[in-house]
From TrEMBL:
Function statement: Catalyzes the phosphorylation of the 3'-hydroxyl group of dephosphocoenzyme A to form coenzyme A.
Localization: Cytoplasm
Entry-linked InterPro entries: Depp_CoAkinase (IPR001977), P-loop_NTPase (IPR027417)
Entry GO MF terms: ATP binding; dephospho-CoA kinase activity
Protein name: Dephospho-CoA kinase
Protein keywords: ATP-binding, Coenzyme A biosynthesis, Cytoplasm, Kinase, Nucleotide-binding, Transferase
HAMAP family reported in the protein's UniProt record: Dephospho_CoA_kinase
Keyword Hydrolase: no
Length: 198
């Protein structure tokens, strides 16, 4: 199965773009959602999370205490790295099992930190969705009802745009002038051809 990663900075529109690929029949694996699910349902992952953060990582009803974990990893980079070292291999396995079940010419894996986590290396191709930073800030402030400062804080934690551009094979520009659909269709056609040649 041909694997294609898709990413973009916060508010770039990667989820919106993924919905368009889904309309074309291409299945999308949402890595960040999968990671959150594994923390709740995968026994091995849960054990490792408790080892790292203690029993307080879960409530008595077995649901995840996200705020407790978020507060710790926000201040402690070592804990964040240790958490990623638990989640990333589990997500990678889940993606491989899922992708083998799909019947399309290629599949998409959406991940916010595709390049930062190095997981782009496992894919055949990677797509970068870009938007002007001011537009991203405006969209996220509206979507999440949050402040400019909070959005900027999250943007600063991600790899700079020019670094991502060097690593991507395909680009989608989601600004206010260009339409997304023709860009998605063109890349889809190219990917179908590449899958045939594989
Ligand atoms: P995050 O990293 O925070 O998950 P994202 O990159 O997945 O963000 P989206 O959620 O797709 O970004 O888009 C951010 C917001 O901007 C959403 O509310 C979405 O509906 C809106 N948006 C994205 N692209 C467009 C567009 N071309 N026209 C209008 N609204 C858009």
């Amino acid at each position: 199965m041909m694997k294609v990663g898709i990413t973009g900075g916060i508010g770039s529109g990667k989820t919106t773009v993924c919905k368009l690929f889904e309309l074309l029949g291409i299945p999308v694996f949402y890595a960040d959602t999968a990671g959150k699910e594994l923390m709740v349902h995968n026994l091995g992952v849960k054990k490792a999370v408790v080892n790292l953060f203690g029993e307080a990582a879960y409530f008595l009803d077995a649901s995840l205490n996200r705020k407790y974990i978020a507060d710790i990893v926000f201040k402690d980079e070592q804990k964040l790295n240790a958490l990623n070292a638990i989640i990333h291999p589990a997500v990678k396995d889940a993606f491989l099992i899922w992708s083998e079940k799909q019947k399309t010419p290629y599949v998409l894996k959406e991940a916010a930190l595709l390049f930062e986590s190095k997981s782009y290396l496992d894919n055949d191709y990677n797509i970068l969705v870009s938007s002007p930073v001011e537009l991203r800030i405006k969209r996220v402030m509206e979507r999440d009802q949050t402040s400019r400062e909070k959005v900027l804080e999250r943007i600063e934690k991600q790899l700079p745009e020019d670094e991502k551009e060097k690593l991507a094979d395909f680009f989608i520009l989601n600004n206010e002038e260009l339409h997304l659909i023709p860009q998605v269709l063109k890349i889809h056609q190219q990917l179908v051809l590449l899958a045939q040649q594989k």
